[in-house]
Design brief:
about 240 residues, about 15% strand, 3-stranded antiparallel sheet, 6-stranded parallel sheet, alpha/beta, 11 helices, elongated, binds adenosine-5-diphosphoribose
């Protein structure tokens, strides 16, 4: 690991345009469960029954009662960890330009990153399913489920459910960041969900170096990544930043 940390510090110092793709793994140390693997949300809830747009349209109260309320409470109390803070330090030192995150927790922005593309939307806002008016989640009273808009419509998280498309601007900007970067950090994603998992492939196709940070191997490891640093995001990113000093 020591050798790879030193190599990553050198690669980051030499890079011209750095982007990062992050997944649920970077927020585990903030108390937010991953989706897959041990303790993953999808071990407890069937995503097609609780996180698919058809399920939300069919029975919003059920989706709210089971998944949304639980996730909202966890996300509302979560704080950025060393992984998020380390990426913010890289931006502050002009060593990281854009973060493309699959996470809906807003922790990159809370850590201080200023260019964050929320590829799967966010839980920080709720949207009316009728008039599309938006409400800050923290201010939404969920004593009555599902919460309602002033127009009477049902509120839903402004996040992308299975069966929905990626917001066009996020898709376009992410593609641009992948094409333009010459180094991409891929942190804490199982890289099995499309189209997000294509982003490192696009970056690689355009000549970028891919550094993966994950305690486990992923489908990217042998095919796309230049190297994998097997460890937890908080510790690894902290050590890379320290090595750059
Ligand atoms: N640091 C870094 N990575 C970690 C850590 C850690 N401390 N702990 C676990 N991981 C890794 C796991 O090995 C796994 O590869 O994080 C990854 C989490 O994978 P998933 O739970 O599948 O999360 P993600 O890749 O973000 O899922 C993609 O799927 O369910 C949908 O919309 C949801 O955005 C989500 C998308």
């Amino acid at each position: 690991m020591k050798e790879l940390i030193r190599r990553a510090a050198e690669d980051l110092a030499a890079a011209g345009n750095v982007a990062a793709l992050t997944g649920a793994g970077i927020s585990i140390e903030s108390g937010i469960p991953p989706f897959r693997g041990k303790g993953g949300l999808w071990e407890r809830f069937d995503p097609m029954e609780f996180a698919h747009i058809d399920a939300l349209m069919r029975d919003p109260a059920k989706v709210w009662k089971v998944l949304v309320r639980e996730m909202k409470e966890i996300v509302d109390r979560a704080k950025p960890n060393d992984g998020h803070k380390g990426l913010a330090k890289l931006e502050a030192r002009d060593r990281l330009k854009t973060i493309i995150t699959q996470n809906i927790d807003g922790l990159h922005q809370a850590a201080g990153n200023t260019d964050v593309i929320e590829y799967h939307g966010t839980f920080a806002w709720q949207r009316c399913m009728d008039c599309h008016k938006k409400y800050e989640s923290r201010k939404v009273d969920i004593s009555e489920i599902p919460p309602r808009c002033d127009c009477g419509g049902i509120l839903r998280p402004d996040a992308v459910f299975f069966g929905e498309t990626i917001p066009a601007k996020a898709m376009w900007r992410s593609r641009q960041a992948a094409v333009d970067c010459d180094l991409m950090l891929v942190v804490g994603t199982s890289a099995v969900v499309q189209p997000a998992a294509m982003i490192p492939v696009i970056a690689k196709d355009n000549g970028a170096k891919i550094i993966e940070i994950n305690p486990e191997r992923t489908p990217l490891t042998d095919e796309i990544s230049d190297y994998l640093i097997m460890g937890e995001a908080g510790e690894v990113i902290n050590r890379i930043v320290a090595a750059m000093d």
